[in-house]
Amino acid sequence: MASPAATESGLPVLVDSHCHIVFRNFDDDLEEVAQRWRDAGVRSLVHACVEPGEIPAIRALADRFEELRYSVGVHPLDTEHWQPDTPEILRQAAQADSRVVAIGELGLDLFREQNLAAQLAMLEPQLDLAVELDLPVIVHCRDAAEPMLTLLRQRASLGGCPRGVMHCWGGDPEEMAGFLELGFFISFSGTVTFPKAEATHACARQVPADRYLVETDCPFLAPVPRRGKRNEPAFVAAVAARVADLRGQTLTEVAHTSSSNAARLFGLQLHNV
């Protein structure tokens, strides 16, 4: 695993640890988007998958952009895409391509849906698959920290809890402490730049240095001052800058730390491309 260093332009190396550039609103200018992320110092991206039908298109993006790695999984709000053969489809996709570095985006979302049983029925097989393949998980958890912690603690007691990251963190420090205790990383998105996101700000200040990542979750959640517009991987620099401000550190320090953490979790090779 290469240690992140400065780019040729002197910018700190950044990792966008969670993005969705497969979406159609990138169709017309993706090459320009890629140039902007390279100009911003982004040297690796982890593309999250929300349902198996995306996998061929994400794989094609990885063919197109050598700095891109990806996950395979089913999002908790995509229960209609879960079929009896889905675990095997995900297993085969993960084993067929070494660029698959995680299972997910999986998890629980009780903000938009209340179908907890259906979401758990998708979540547990994906956690099992991550343990089987020794891959980390990318966890979506919205208004669901209590049931998620309960499940993961039960699994940890039986030796079946994978490592992973709580993506787009929106919980409070107490909830964060529970996931940290289980060994999870915490990833901050553009929400950390929002003025009223006080709980997220507190988490960014308190999270241990060796346990946080930065991400965009693009095309969603563009950071201030681009809030409300299409997000893109280059904007992870604004996320890292806000985390640096909250922690009383420089952008270079936060970029180095978060990139090292992402490389360790996902097995990334960070280099100039």
TrEMBL record:
Name its co-factor(s).
Answer: a divalent metal cation
Q: Which GO terms describe its molecular function?
A: D-tyrosyl-tRNA(Tyr) deacylase activity; DNA nuclease activity; metal ion binding
UniProt similarity note: Belongs to the metallo-dependent hydrolases superfamily. TatD-type hydrolase family. DTD3 subfamily.
> What EC number(s) is this enzyme filed under?
3.1.1.96
Q: Which residues bind a divalent metal cation 2?
A: 105, 140, 167
Gene Ontology cellular component list = cytosol
UniProt-listed HAMAP family: Deacylase_DTD3 (MF_02048)
**The entry's keywords:** Hydrolase, Metal-binding
Q: What class of enzyme is it?
A: hydrolase
Q: What's the record's note on cofactor binding?
A: Binds 2 divalent metal cations per subunit.
Could you tell me which InterPro entries the record lists for this protein? Deacylase_DTD3, DNase_TatD-rel_CS, Metal_Hydrolase, TatD-like, TatD/YcfH-like
Sorted alphabetically, which Pfam families does this protein's record hold? TatD_DNase
State the function annotated in the UniProt record: Catalyzes the hydrolysis of D-tyrosyl-tRNA(Tyr).
Reaction it catalyzes: a D-aminoacyl-tRNA + H2O = a tRNA + a D-alpha-amino acid + H(+); D-tyrosyl-tRNA(Tyr) + H2O = D-tyrosine + tRNA(Tyr)
Q: What is this protein called?
A: D-aminoacyl-tRNA deacylase
Presence of keyword Metal-binding? yes
Is Metal-binding among this UniProt entry's keywords?
yes
Q: Which GO terms describe its biological process?
A: D-amino acid catabolic process
So where does a divalent metal cation 1 get bound? 18, 20, 105, 217
